[in-house]
Amino acid sequence: MDLETLVELDRSLVWHPYGPMPATQSPLVVESASGVRLRLADGSELVDGMSSWWAAIHGYRHPVLDAAVQDQLGRMSHVMFGGLTHEPAVRLARTLVDITPDPLRHVFFCDSGSVAVEVAIKMCLQYWRSLGRPSKHRLMTWRGGYHGDTFHPMSVTDPEGGMHALWRGILPSQLFAPAPSAAYDASYVASFADLLAEHASTVAAIIVEPVVQGAGGMRFHAPELLRDLRALADEHDVLLIFDEIATGFGRTGSLFAADQAGVTPDVMCVGKALTGGYLSMGATLCVPRVASGISRGETPVLAHGPTFMANPLSSAVANASIDLLLASDWSSSVKRISSGLASGLAPAWDVPGVSDVRVLGAIGVVQLDHEVNVPAATKAAVERGVWLRPFRDLIYTMPPYITDDTDLAAITSAVVAAATAA
Ligand SMILES: *Cc1c(COP(=O)(O)O)cnc(C)c1O
């Protein structure tokens, strides 16, 4: 297909994320990708500063991951999971149980992050129904979060970012505490505790993204706060869900963000980097108490079963990606990227309109005091050979862990240039 036709058909036929139909801006056409580079249709290359939305931690066309997919392709791409099972899924479950905090011990596989959150919520609501307390059906969270785009995840996403005004009367109404501050604040905990105490009889679970709030605003908070949430949840007979879909697999500097607090949630969601960014997959883990609670109910089954549940190709590449991560010195890579981001993004403080510059693990954020002019910021980055995708007032990067120092310097100077142009 010639490039002009492709772009025109894309514009008129294909919906893109958070976009209008027909599209008002033309996306770049990617022909292939390898290592940390995206190769565009015009032959130029861009260093990927986004890891394809947190996912491609090992970069593209990694020989080990390619081989894992090819090997599995030679056996079977997919079989249903009802009544059947296979080694890739069982191995993956064992690995996830091994590497996540104890006692998360049971795994529900699904096909995306949003569905993993749906399943987490269903588990918690059903747990209380099974125990004869159906009035515990609401969720508590804090503002500034993001948990996916299907309706229940959207209901616990930040009310503004999740466009709750548009869905008034449709979205279930959840309980929101203010967004957590960056530094630990005992008075914040006290007000969170008050709100929970007031509503505990109707709250099934607290759901948060631990340590980093991603697509809701790229904000960081003190890990100690998670210990308070754990204690408050226990005190008030409420379950605790950690959504580690963005933070999982090393991104924040620990394998899971929960590790930084030494806290185990009752339910935990993973996705995004789970398959190294190769294929869509999510998983929801829970502790035995949740599973056995559900089993004691009048309806002792978890009524959920996606068609592509535990897809063998996804499972195989997830196994390969996790093995690759654990065999590598990922912690040093994340530290190296972290210090490269800190030094490379520091000049952004001098850019007019920049209100904050922050780095945590392999995540770098430049926040403006105004909405980003996305086309201008994108153009400035692309001119420097870098792919960035800003949103709202944020220009941010979370590079693949294999990004070397030269490419990292290109990324940070592109972020600064984008902030200048935006
Ligand atoms: C991306 C994301 C989701 C949704 O995952 P999808 O695979 O896009 O459905 C949920 N929670 C968090 C924290 C995320 O970053």
From TrEMBL:
Pathway(s) annotated for this protein in UniProt: Cofactor biosynthesis; biotin biosynthesis; 7,8-diaminononanoate from 8-amino-7-oxononanoate (SAM route): step 1/1
GO molecular function, one term: pyridoxal phosphate binding
Record site feature (Participates in the substrate recognition with KAPA and in a stacking interaction with the adenine ring of SAM), residues: 18
Residues carrying N6-(pyridoxal phosphate)lysine: 272
Keywords: Aminotransferase, Biotin biosynthesis, Cytoplasm, Pyridoxal phosphate, S-adenosyl-L-methionine, Transferase
Subcellular location: Cytoplasm
Cofactor: pyridoxal 5'-phosphate
Name of the top EC class for this enzyme: transferase
GO cellular component annotations of the record: cytoplasm
Coiled-coil intervals: none
Keyword Cytoplasm: yes
GO biological process, one term: biotin biosynthetic process
Catalysis: reaction(s): (8S)-8-amino-7-oxononanoate + S-adenosyl-L-methionine = S-adenosyl-4-methylsulfanyl-2-oxobutanoate + (7R,8S)-7,8-diammoniononanoate
InterPro entries (alphabetical): Aminotrans_3, Aminotrans_3_PPA_site, BioA, PyrdxlP-dep_Trfase, PyrdxlP-dep_Trfase_major, PyrdxlP-dep_Trfase_small
Role noted for this protein: Catalyzes the transfer of the alpha-amino group from S-adenosyl-L-methionine (SAM) to 7-keto-8-aminopelargonic acid (KAPA) to form 7,8-diaminopelargonic acid (DAPA). It is the only aminotransferase known to utilize SAM as an amino donor.
Quaternary organization: Homodimer.
NCBIfam families membership: bioA, PRK05964.1
Family named by the database record: Belongs to the class-III pyridoxal-phosphate-dependent aminotransferase family. BioA subfamily.
Name the UniProt record assigns to this protein: Adenosylmethionine-8-amino-7-oxononanoate aminotransferase
Species of the source: Dactylosporangium sucinum
